[in-house]
C-alpha cells in the first residue's frame, strides 16, 4: 500500500514517478547551473522562527485581503505555462482545487485551457491573468480583452523575460511540446519549442511604458512580476502599479540572481506599503509562508508543487498540496503564538546556518 503524501516533497516524488523525463526537466529545471533555483529553497532553510509561548493561537485566522478581495490564506498559485503537460485537465483542475479552498490562481499567457471555462470553475475565487508582451501588441491586447470579459480580476505583467533564460536541460533534451499541447487563449495556434517561440514572438524591447499602455487598454489592476531590487520596486511604484511580485521566475531566467527571500526585505522596505508585495520561489512548507510575511510580503505564490500535485492526482492532487500548505501554516501560526497575519512581524524570524 502506498503511504499518503504528507509533505510537498512527497508529492514531488509521486510526480516524478509519473512523468516523462523531458517534461519533468522542463518543470523542474532552471537557468544555467541552477544556483538561483537551489538558492530559492535553501533560503528558507536559513530561517529560524521565534515563537511566543503562552499566547493561545488555536484556530488562527489565516485570511488576508489583497486588492480588495479576501483570500482564505496568503497563498496563491503562481502562473505556469501548460498545466496540461502535467494532467489532461490542466488549469481546470488547478483552478477548481484552489477555488474550493478560497485561494487565487494566476493563469499563464500559455495556459492550456480556455479562460472562460477557468473563470466559470473559479466560481467567485480570484482569477488573475499573467501577461507576456508579444512583439505584436494586438495579440496581447486581444488576450487581455478576452480574459477581462471572462472575469479575470488582475493582470500580472512578467518583467523578467525580455528573452527566455538559458535552460540547459531543455537545450540538451531538445525539449518540444507534444502537438496536442497548445495555448488555449492566444490566436495563432501552437508551437513546438517554447524557447524558439519566445525568441520569435516576445517583445525584447519592453520597458516601463508598458504600464501606461496596459492602463490604456484595461481597467484591471496591474501587477509586475519579476522585481528583485529596491530601485526597480520604486520604479514600479512610480509607474503606478497595483502590486509587485518579487520573483526570479523560479530560477528559470538569470542564474546568479539572489533567492527571492533574500531580495524581499529591501523591496518591502522600499515600497513601504505603497502597494501589496507578493513573492514566489522555493515555497515548499506552510512555515515558509510565515517567513515571507515576516520579511515583508503580503502573500506568497507557489509554483512547481502545484504541478507536482496535478501530475500526481489531478484536482485531488492539487487539493492535497494546498491542504498541506494550509495545515502547515495553521500549525506554524498556532505554535508561534500567531493569532492572525497582523501578528506576523519581522521579529518572528532570525537568519541562521542552513539546516
Ligand atoms: C513558470 N513560471 C512562469 N512565470 C510566468 O510569469 N509565466 C509563465 O508562463 C511561467 N511558466 C512557468 C512554467 C513552469 C513549468 C514553471 C516551473 C514556472 C514561473 C512561476 O510563475 C514562478 O515564478 C516560479 O515557478 C515560482 O517558483 P517555485 O514555486 O516553482 O519554486
Question: What does this 3D model show about the protein?
Answer:
The protein is an alpha/beta fold. The protein is 41% helix and 13% strand. It has 13 helices and twelve strands. It has helices at 8-18, 21-28, 35-44, 91-100, 115-122, 137-150, 168-173, 194-201, 210-217, 230-238, 260-271, 286-294, 304-336; strands spanning 47-49, 64-66, 69-71, 75-77, 105-107, 127-131, 154-158, 222-227, 243-246, 277-280, 299-302, 349-351. The strands form three sheets. An eight-stranded parallel beta sheet has the order 4-11-10-9-8-7-6-5. Strands 1-12 form a two-stranded antiparallel sheet. Helix 5 links the parallel strand 5 and strand 6 (127-131). The protein is globular. The model has no long low-confidence stretch (mean pLDDT 97). Ligand FNR binds next to loops.
Describe this structure in a few short sentences:
The chain has about 350 residues and is an alpha/beta fold. It is about 40% helix and about 15% strand.
List SSEs in N-to-C order: HHHEEEEHEHEHEHHHEHEHEHEHE
Task: Please report the distance between the alpha carbons of the first and last residues.
Answer: 32 Å
What is the gyration radius calculated from CA atoms? Answer: 19 Å
Shape annotation:
globular
Helical content, roughly? 40-55%
